[in-house]
Amino acid sequence: MNDVALTPTRPNVVLILADDLGYSDLGSYGGEIDTPNLDQLASGGTRLTQFYTTARCSPSRASLLTGLHPHQTGIGVLTGDDSPVGYKGNLNRNCATAAEIFSANGYATGITGKWHLAADAHNPNDAWPTRRGFDYFYGTLTGCGSFYNPGTLVRGETNIEHEAQDPDFYYTDAITDEAVGFLDRATAQNKPFFLYVAYTAPHWPLHAPESDIDKYAGRFDAGWDHLRQERFERQYELGIVEPGTSLSPRDPEERAWDDTPDKAWQARRMQTYAAQVDRMDQGIGRIIAELKDRNQFDNTIIVFLSDNGASPEEIPHFERDTFVKRTDIYRPHTRAGEPVQLGNEPRIVPGPENTYSSYGRAWANLSNTPFRMYKKWTHEGGIAAPFIIHWPAGTVQEGRLLRHPLQLTSVLPTLLEAAGIDPPTEMNGNPVPAPEGTSFLNLLRQGEGKGTRPARHAVDAQTGTLYWEHAGNGAIRRGDWKLVRTFPGPWELYNLSKDSTELDDVVANNRDLAESLLADWAQWADRVGVLPFGRIVELYELRGRPAIEAAG
Predict the structure, then answer these.
(1) Is residue 202 part of a domain?
(2) Are 550 and 536 in contact (CB under 8 A)?
(3) Of residues 116, 207, 317, 379, which has the active-site annotation?
């Protein structure tokens, strides 16, 4: 444990993660969804306009909690064990989590919500949060599921799925309830706390209380084409997008709204998605209120972000027969015994417990305004995310837009510097690597200059170069230049200072630069343990499974 005095001036940390929330969904990022509590944090803190995730839920969570690239932690795709050909899909011991570090330095630690970092979600093991530094855990081990009757619901290491039998149970509210309860207990201990609130909203299925859905009646009737343009114009007014930015065209696989049948059903899908986001924001408001009631608000670092871009995934995900066997994420009957209607078709009106649907590619295209592509891809639409940080006592600038390109590997170093904690060189007797990112605390306080506090970090972090790989999709950003590909296709090159929405591939005119970037990316991939995705695809084909399942 570091020699750090346990005084009331040490900041608390509340880290809030949304699931599959698009870049533009929040009001403070241009959306028409009501998010007053998050917008309040944005106006009182700093928003990042070029913050990047890893493109997918499990890898993003691994990177967020460790400061490493996900491949280094054992989470290369999702949490399926594909070893030895692929990744183990299990948070390994060659990394230290934020909870382990904060706990070792005198913090109370808790998590409420989604974990999704353990290959075995049913039997307690070293990859469970209770064994990775968290004093308290309430939530789900699996990646998604019913909001009314979630699978793998656990308190500590005990399955408590029976608690969801309460007819008033709604998972988003339960995550908030447990977060507020943790804050109540932690403040009574008179010690600083680290709380990780991992909502499953607005990931599918589209489940939300009818009262919240009704609130959005008519709001999306104009359709995705008109609403994308409106969001883009608001983003320009807010300063989220800069002059010269072009709105990407509607996804070519989707119809124009005017040509779309079943408009009422389509609007209902987006209404339900909005209601999920709205309910999450209401919960965040309750967390804020608890912090204020406990006189902890000003000295609590509140971070809010999404784990990746919006999701275009249709339901059922993969083959129907395979999907319905996943009882950890799909319940074939409601708690009252009624059959659950699975799929995206107009006869299934999303929202209630007896439905299981998603909102689809066209609405995800709206959520990711102004970008193209989605969750899983390393184009901007898959990796760009809203990021809000609020800390009045730490002099984080109010109402500021920070345009510095940053990614998940820098979040933990920033939080540790704010708390006066050095990254460890070992944890529980195991050596752990230095964080891949560097703290951006000084940027939040003073501008785009260098920090003065020495930092222990990996050599690549010093260059300012950012790297990605997920399911064969790869990217590297050096300055304004970004080399990116969709597996197994060719590499594309974009100058983001002129083309932030990646519409003009200039690789043909910049071959030498592209080769230099590719060489840099390949060296990084070898160093952090990226495995050839084609091998994992071959593994699934040998198992007699569709190649698409290799990506999770």
Answers:
(1) yes
(2) yes
(3) 116
Mean pLDDT for the stretch of residues 57-69? 98
Q: How far apart are CA 464 and CA 405, in angstroms?
A: 9
346 close to 355: Cβ distance less than 8 angstroms? no
Identity (one letter) of the amino acid at 540? Y
Band (351; pLDDT cuts 50, 70, 90): very high
Separation of alpha carbons 456 and 439, rounded Å:
10
For the question of residue 162 being annotated catalytic, the response is: no
Number of H helices, E strands in the chain: 15, 19
d(CA 143, CA 61): 11
pLDDT tens digits, one per residue of 493-534? 999 999 999 999 999 999 999 999 999 999 999 999 999 999
Checking 538-541 for CB contacts under 8 A at 24+ apart, the result is 538/85, 539/82, 539/85, 539/86
DSSP for 124-155, written as a single string? --TTSGGGTT-SEEEEESSS---SSS-TTEEE
Show the tokens assigned to 164.
């969801």
Is 50 exceeded by the pLDDT of residue 459? no
Going by C-alpha positions, the residue among 59, 50, 64, 117 that lies closest to residue 471 is 59
Please list, in sequence order, all residues whose beta carbon lies within 8 angstroms of the beta carbon of residue 181, skipping any fewer than 6 positions away: none
Expressed as residue numbers, the domain containing 336 is 12-449
Query: Taking the mean position of all CA atoms in its chain, how far away is CA 543?
Result: 30
CA torsion 37→42→48→53, rounded to 10°? -10
Question: Which residue is it, tokens 């917008």?
Answer: 39
First to last CA, the chain: 38
In this prediction, residue 341 has a pLDDT band, given cuts at 50, 70 and 90, of: very high
Burial-class residue 278 by CB neighbours within 10 Å (0-12, 13-18, 19+).
buried
To the query of whether residue 144 is one of the catalytic residues in this protein, the response is no
The answer as to whether 44 is a domain residue is: yes
Is the preceding omega at residue 84 within 30 degrees of 0, hence cis? yes
Whether residue 471 lies inside any domain: the answer is no
More confident of the two residues 92 and 429: 92
- Domain count for the chain, please give it: 1
Here the CATH number for the domain that contains residue 53 is 3.40.720.10
| 8-state DSSP, 7 | -
Are residues 259 and 184 in contact, defined by beta-carbon separation less than 8 angstroms?
no
CB atoms within 10 A of CB 206: 28
Residue 131, classified by CB atoms within 10 Å of its CB into exposed (0-12), middle (13-18) or buried (19+), is middle
Q: Look at residue 524 and tell me if it is in a domain.
A: no
In the block, residue with structure tokens 């102004």: 370
CB distance 98 to 412 below 8 Å: yes
Structure letter (DSSP) for residue 532: P
Q: How far is the C-alpha of 154 from the C-alpha of 152, rounded, in Å?
A: 6
Q: What is the pTM of this model?
A: 0.95
H-helix or E-strand containing 427?
strand 426-427
Nearest to 182 by CA among 161, 159, 198, 164: 198
